[in-house]
Each structure stands twice: as C-alpha cells, then as structure tokens.
Design brief:
The structure is a single chain. The chain is built from five helices and five strands, in the order βαββαβααβα. Strands 1, 2, 3, 4 and 5 form a five-stranded mixed β-sheet that branches. It is an alpha/beta fold. Helix content is 30%, strand content 20%. The protein is globular. Bound molecules: guanosine-5'-triphosphate and magnesium ion (MG). Guanosine-5'-triphosphate binds next to helix 1. The site of guanosine-5'-triphosphate (GTP) has 22 residues, from helix 1. Pfam families: Ras.
Length: 171
C-alpha cells in the first residue's frame, strides 16, 4: 500500500511499563497480559490517515532493560516521534506531575491503557498530527530524514542488518 509519508517512531521507557503492549494494541488491537521481555528492538507498522493522506507509522519498540541501552540508543536516529512511556498503576507519577513535565518540555501528554485500548489510537494519531503540521509549517524538513520515503525493501534490509557492523580496515 502506498503512502504519502512515512514517520518513524520510537517507544522508550523502563522495562515492564507497557511499551510493547501499547504497540500491540495499536497494530493488532489485542492485549498481551504476560510480560514478553523485549530483546533489543522490535518493530511494528500501521497506516493511518491525516488530512486525507495515507501515512505509514513505522514504530520501533525498544527494550527497557538497562543492559540493552547501548543497542536501543542506536535506533533513536531519524525518529520523528518518540513515545516516552511509564506505568501509571505504580503511582510514582501523578497525573498532574506528568502533565506538568509534558508542558515544560512541549510534549503531548496522555494517559492510555493498552489493556482497555483507551487513548491508544489517540496517542499515535495525535503525535502524527503534530509531526504532519510541523512538515506543513516547514519546521520539519522532509528531506532531512524526519519523514522519509523509505521503500519497504530498504526497511527489511535495515532490519536484517546486524546492530553492530564490523568495519574492515583496508590497510
Ligand atoms: N493494566 C494494564 N497492564 C498493562 C498495560 N500495559 C502493559 N501491562 C502489563 O505490563 C506487562 C508488561 O508490558 P510490556 O508491554 O511487555 O512491557 P515493556 O515496556 O515492553 O517491557 P520491556 O520489553 O522489558 O521493556 C504486560 O504483560 C501487562 O501485564 C496497561 O495498559 N494496563
Ligand atoms: Mg517490550
């Protein structure tokens, strides 16, 4: 299926906070009650429509476990959107604190549930809308890998590539 834009997203946050569940609810409309620890980085994609234009969201779900930090960092490059996820059931961050943090940093703030699907669509679509508007306003340069036109096979090749590439010295 063709699309007008491809937005790359990353999902970041501590382990077990629900990053993969959020992605699964968005792409497959289902909930995974058992914690399936993400190893390195997983990948999902879905089409959405903004301003009557088909937009593909290419979403990289990172492992929250500390030991994967150096790998997951290398996936931040070129991301147009980042979802910073934390667990609201642990009550470590109140609604007001979350809202205030977002306000100070100019972020979209939303409490969502991967279990009930509440606000899941909204979280992705609202951020995509913000990115889209920035492109229209010329804030984001589309030629500058913020919203790339990456062909499918290039993505597949990228996924198949090792996280760390060996560089051979010609000398
Ligand atoms: N009640 C509730 N539980 C959730 C929700 N999202 C996730 N969970 C629970 O938290 C567990 C862990 O969620 P994951 O999405 O696997 O966590 P993660 O952030 O991807 O963890 P890592 O891959 O280790 O970084 C799930 O298996 C659910 O039991 C939610 O929205 N509501
Ligand atoms: Mg995960």
């Amino acid at each position: 299926m063709s699309y007008a834009y491809l937005f790359k997203y990353i999902i970041i946050g501590d382990t077990g906070v629900g990053k993969s569940c959020l992605l699964l609810q968005f792409t497959d409309k289902r909930f995974q009650p058992v914690h399936d620890l993400t190893i390195g980085v997983e990948f999902g994609a879905r089409m959405i429509t903004i301003d009557n234009k088909p937009i593909k969201l290419q979403i990289w779900d990172t492992a929250g476990q500390e030991s994967f930090r150096s790998i997951t960092r290398s996936y931040y490059r070129g991301a147009a959107g980042a979802l910073l996820v934390y667990d609201i059931t642990r009550r470590a961050v109140s609604y007001e604190e979350g809202e205030q943090f977002a306000k100070e940093h100019g972020l979209v703030f939303m409490e969502a549930s991967a279990k009930t699907a509440q606000n899941v669509e909204e979280a992705f679509i609202k951020t995509a809308g913000t990115i889209y508007k920035k492109i229209q306003d010329g804030v984001f340069d589309v030629s500058n890998e913020v919203a790339d036109y990456i062909p499918e096979d290039a993505i597949a090749a990228d996924l198949a590539a090792p996280a760390v590439e060996k560089v051979f010295d010609a000398g």
